[in-house]
Amino acid sequence: MATATLTIDLDAIANNWRAMDRLSGQGVQTGAVVKADAYGLGVPRVARALAQAGARRFFVAASEEGAAVRQALGPGPQINVLSGHMAGDTDMIADLDLTPMLNSLEQITRHLEALPGHAFGVQLDTGMNRLGIEMLEWQAVAPILLEAGPVMLMSHLACADEPDHPMNLLQLEAFHEMTDGTGIPRSLAATGGIMLGPKYHFDLTRPGIGLYGGRPFDTAQRVVSLSLPIIQTREVQPGEAVGYSCAWEAEQQSIVATLQAGYADGLLRSLSNKAMLWDRETPCPLIGRVSMDMITADITHLSEMPKSLDILGPHQTLDELADAAGTISYELLTGMGARYLRRYLEARN
Ligand SMILES: *Cc1c(COP(=O)(O)O)cnc(C)c1O
């Protein structure tokens, strides 16, 4: 393979959705978050695989992303836009039947005036202070807005990946206070919230990262593998250095492989001298600086020259690579570069 290849297992995504659906519990719907091009994995294929698994309610960050999901899925599934009804988006929301989650009085006014009768939800701020209507505003506007029949009231947890964080209960209480007795379907939990247990699930859950194999859903099936072709190998002598800033120096006679992919492909520069690559079962340390288009690995101990090495696979998960880079799986996934060949695995049925 002459190109760095990102393999995306659509069956694993479907299985992860089913597992999140089981965890969400009986009588609770399970949505699917496919913002940022399905966390960098390609929204057309991923959204179709999720719809086939049974997902009916999708979440995206912006209307343009909603348009891509609608194009992939056709009419039917509900596509919710987390940024709400932004100025200039009215036609797209109407024509493609998107459901904006209204975040402010300004958005409420815009939506009810421009598209009366068109489906909408409401995002409430329960303490994250990022998006949504706050308690006092909500108390003022709720009587009118509930009359217009929102399809959902939702909020988002700031610290759900830390089960013992006091913020979780505070936000849960605020959400109850703002929504109890409304009779409108409610949604609070993303992946982390699903793991917190049933009292966080309400009527609809919104998993994202769990579908794609990342923490905190620890029993997720692995979704991505990344294999990098070796462009060239060379022998270096003790005392010789490799790459920019001579950041790695050979202590013994070594064989260095240069591989095709670098920080322009999302292999963060913070992986310099840190990550591991794998020749099947054998680890090969990434050595020296990550360059824009290349990385280097120490393959001295291999008995045969491989054509490629894996940087994501059975021996190094997304979270492990993210840890090595000092970041989180979300950033690594969404930063996967456009130059990778994307190969989708899907059982034929
Ligand atoms: C991104 C996002 C999600 C999904 O979160 P994960 O942690 O990836 O499961 C759910 N809800 C909202 C509002 C989001 O922004």
TrEMBL record:
Residues 223-345 form the Alanine racemase C-terminal domain. The active site is at K35, Y244. The keyword Coiled coil does not apply. Pathway: Amino-acid biosynthesis; D-alanine biosynthesis; D-alanine from L-alanine: step 1/1. Pfam families: Ala_racemase_C, Ala_racemase_N. GO terms for molecular function: alanine racemase activity. PROSITE patterns: ALANINE_RACEMASE (PS00395). Keywords: Isomerase, Pyridoxal phosphate. Substrate binds at R130, M292. The modification N6-(pyridoxal phosphate)lysine is found at K35. Its cofactor is pyridoxal 5'-phosphate. The keyword Glycosyltransferase does not apply. It catalyses: L-alanine = D-alanine. NCBIfam families: alr (TIGR00492). Catalyzes the interconversion of L-alanine and D-alanine. May also act on other amino acids. HAMAP family: Ala_racemase (MF_01201). This is Alanine racemase. The gene is alr.
